[in-house]
């Protein structure tokens, strides 16, 4: 008998980030960064770790959704399951009863994400590789098998995907060596939270330049006069050569977005991120046409590949910001990378939160080695908090993510973190006056 | 001190409908119709009832999501809350932490739906009216206050909504009298489940005509040859004068949908429902252009008003099939009715499942009296099972829904049903071999 998957355990883990206004923006005034965390156990002495990222309240609901997926993994033969993650993905996502809860969106889809990513973590550990390298070593045919092309074929067929991957194949070894030598460019969001005062903003902008970042990001959308003042400070601090992205976090209606971005144009914003509802494909396209040459970036709340497909078809975005843990994990993100490559749109992933940097770097590095084959005009978001809770935290040096070498996906939190930040009974919360309850 | 909302209780209620293949279609092979059911208690001797509809597995996750909303209602002053359901809605939907779990989609949004609808049930009982009449007695200004126009203003402004409602105001009394006299047209889906054999199909088609229905619906999308045979049987049974809608339940990609519907064209299908992913605004528009004069209908899985807005903007549908319990309850459906009226698209609600007929009739009747002012080309879906579990079941007579007169929203299940069908410990499930677990 071969090894089996024997358990699925969950943890409701929350960090009291709202106390310092880290992560504060126009829509998320007081986030408590949280993880609905999952550990998949085996009788082979290996564990897979994954999580859905939330910002506090509701993390218990998210955790319950992950538990509902237990029957889809516990009891599977380990090697067979890991060799057919495309099949495991489809059985979970298309379960004839569970899909009613989405389909393929929201809490239930993020739960699939956590489980799928944990399975990839497990597979990468079993093969002794980081996930980016594991993916980049697959053949084009194996990569295509990971993807569910349902609802995509009017924009991308399996044959077209194969062609994209084959075109990138000859340069894989050269790009891998280059990636290991120089890393992958990052930009930093750390200076720009809405809750920071002007002095803190100025200091962090100067620090970002000193740290080697070529792009920073500021939160906007609360008050136009404040945004103008803060953008002026930031532009003065970083100079004309550093890109400043702005991020409205879905704050505006279509017309407001257009007016607001035009009022900020004098500060040369590189992109405007999430100008309106993440569901509004047509609204984003209208905004994109109206604010050019300022570009639209979006994706951290885009629910699945079907919405990304339409955003690419409609010209809704110039930068596609996939998230490692909102769509249904690695498999769906491979589909999204292929869609972006088909349409020639650069992917600049969303990160930050807790653990998202750790995960998403693998997807961008895989994209560089085996899909788009390019780092041009591409950056991964970086936020410099909560990394100390991870067993293999990201390393960012001179404005670049260093390619990880540890086997796995980087999702594993330290045991002490799981204990200390357990909600509501861990010591961080049990002694706190401001819990994350409503 | 005035009355308060004092409790929020939930029930996981499931019906073993998969045993008889009632409800079987191309995507939902074996549904166990279920309700994540909520009872909102007060110290005024009144209760409000609501639910989210699911089809089995995951109903526990849905129930947990409803419980997460307890802090938003328990402790509210009853009359103030009921007088400001627009405000209560916004506070729940836009909670700065919970919205991360959607935003406004999937499990968390359906949970809001259950709670909001329970509050409307409570308000209607307190005012001694059925919900349709309660809504139809509000002034245009009061109706506009129920709606959150965020993300809608590029298609519908509060001023335009007011204009639509004022235009309908003079005819309200006449239409109400007419509605009470003749009811609202229904169509029936009962003949057409995929799991039924040809004889059962033929018999139920003939029965539908005898019962006075002018439209029936058949599930399609499993196998083209089967669909052609079944449509031929149905067309022969009902004759040329009865409309036959077909429903693919999201089975197809865009290209397949176009080919398949063209292959069925000889049987004169009235509309094709859910031809592809409910998220695919542009895909639906492509299909609609290609299959005309066959019409596209969709909506039961459309997640919120932002997606409906785009479907109207893009010409994705000819019939808008809102669902009473998927978007965030009455308030969001008022927004959707107003959007449909603005674009001149008839609303033909989704129903069936369990309790959806009971709820949605109120929305169509309100639409007729106070919004669109028309029943032309409009029908409410009707499926004839599980009504016996409700305290105030719908009455359908001669192919028409009879306007309900009992105070409330019709969502209240019988206490015996809540006990017998409790999952997993109620007698219906405890004695069963095929539970609804995965």
UniProtKB/TrEMBL annotation, chains A, B:
Catalytic activity: L-fuconate = 2-dehydro-3-deoxy-L-fuconate + H2O
One GO MF term: magnesium ion binding
A matching Pfam family: MR_MLE_C
A single BP term in Gene Ontology: carbohydrate catabolic process
Recorded superkingdom: Bacteria
Entry keywords, A to Z: Isomerase, Lyase, Magnesium, Metal-binding
PROSITE patterns, sorted: MR_MLE_2
Record SMART domains: MR_MLE
EC numbers for this chain: 4.2.1.68
Known cofactor(s): Mg(2+)
Protein name: L-fuconate dehydratase
Organism placement in taxonomy: Bacteria, Bacillati, Actinomycetota, Actinomycetes, Pseudonocardiales
